[in-house]
Structure formats: structure tokens, C-alpha cells
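Exercise 7. Given the encoded structure of a 211-residue chain, write a plausible sequence.
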């Protein structure tokens, strides 16, 4: 994906396949506001709208060159595991944030010799016509928290809300999130709820939004 038209086309395709705007935001690695704007601009499910002159201030991270190749994903996951390797001595669980964070977490868990769990965040249920008050969930098909120390893995941080939600959900289950790691951090966060955040890439915006 190299331009806005590609993103609009992708958003339209995902919307036609029945994904919520929260899931579209996750698939395209953009904010909820950007996902909503892309769907509206495409005219999917409604009369086509005139394209806004501006649009949300956001940065799209396309890591599909990594995701579509298992060998590349393994090497990137190994690098992310290395960022976590000195954080905590008794960590035996890695939590991947669905959807994109789960395959990365699989590699990280293998490198660090931990169990694997996954968390589906609230944003997957978000759309313009619902309240977004449904809770996220930990999959019962993978390892459970059970008062364990754990790492948290995702692909990108856009606003930080999903990572914050996941950290809080782990604590509500009695777990202790020791550290978080992502491929790319669009916010440049040092920590979330007191939990350190590490990233392979940090995206830094230079200049004001008006420029």
C-alpha cells in the first residue's frame, strides 16, 4: 500500500467482508478515526460522500513484507524477544494482542520459552452504530493468566488505548504485566500504566499538524 487510494480500496474491501471499523483499524494499522474516515470516503454501505479536504492525522505502517513470510517474521520476532529478554526473571507467559499481535507473540514465546496467550481487545467490536462498551476477552484456547508474570506483544501502537486496555485486563485477571513490545510505536511511549514499552521502530512526527 503506497497511497491513500490503496488504503481507501482496502478499507472498502474489508467493510464489504463484514469487518467492523475497529477490525479495519487493526488490519490497516491506523486509528479508529482514520478507519472510519477511509470507509466513509470509499462510500461503502452508503451513498458516496465527497472526499474531505483533510482527514485524520495518522501514519500507516505497512509491515506486510514481514507478515507474509514466515522466515522474516521469525527473525523479527527474535529481535523483539531480545528486547524483552532482560525484563523479569520469572516470566513464563507471553500475551499476543489479536489479531496481528498473535503470530508475532508466537515467535516471541518460542524464543523466550514461555506459554502463549491471546487477548481480543474491545476495538474489534467497535463500529459507529454501537457503544463499544463490550469487554475484551482472553482466548480459552491458549494459556490463561492465573496470577502469572507476562509479556505483552502487538504489532503497532497508534493511540496506546489497546495496549492500556490489555495491561489493565491482565491485572484484573491477577496477572503481572512486566513489559510490552511492538514492531512500531507511533506515539513514542516509554511506558503504559507503569509497564515499560519497547519497539523496534519509533515513528516521530516532525513539525506541527498545521504544516
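Solution.
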Amino acid at each position: 500500500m503506497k497511497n491513500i487510494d490503496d488504503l481507501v480500496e482496502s478499507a472498502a474491501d474489508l467493510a464489504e467482508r463484514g469487518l467492523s471499523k475497529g477490525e479495519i483499524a487493526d488490519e490497516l494499522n491506523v486509528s479508529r478515526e482514520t478507519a472510519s474516515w477511509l470507509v466513509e470516503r470509499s462510500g461503502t454501505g452508503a451513498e458516496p460522500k465527497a472526499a474531505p479536504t483533510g482527514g485524520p492525522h495518522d501514519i500507516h505502517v505497512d509491515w506486510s513484507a514481514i507478515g507474509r513470510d514466515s522466515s522474516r517474521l521469525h527473525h523479527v520476532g527474535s529481535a523483539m524477544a531480545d528486547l524483552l529478554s532482560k525484563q523479569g526473571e520469572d516470566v513464563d507467559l507471553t500475551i499476543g494482542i489479536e489479531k496481528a499481535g498473535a503470530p508475532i507473540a508466537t515467535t516471541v514465546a518460542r524464543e523466550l520459552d514461555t506459554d502463549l496467550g491471546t487477548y481480543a481487545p474491545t476495538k474489534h467490536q467497535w463500529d459507529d452504530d454501537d457503544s463499544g462498551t463490550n469487554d475484551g476477552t482472553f482466548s480459552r484456547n491458549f494459556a490463561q493468566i492465573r496470577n502469572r508474570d507476562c509479556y505483552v506483544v502487538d504489532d503497532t501502537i497508534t493511540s496506546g488505548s489497546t495496549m492500556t486496555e490489555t495491561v489493565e485486563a491482565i491485572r484484573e485477571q491477577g496477572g503481572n504485566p512486566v513489559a510490552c513490545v511492538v514492531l512500531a510505536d507511533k506515539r513514542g511511549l516509554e511506558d503504559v500504566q507503569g509497564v515499560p514499552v519497547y519497539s523496534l521502530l519509533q515513528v516521530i512526527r516532525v513539525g506541527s499538524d498545521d504544516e
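Remark. The two ends are 24 Å apart (CA to CA). Students should compare their own answers with the one above.
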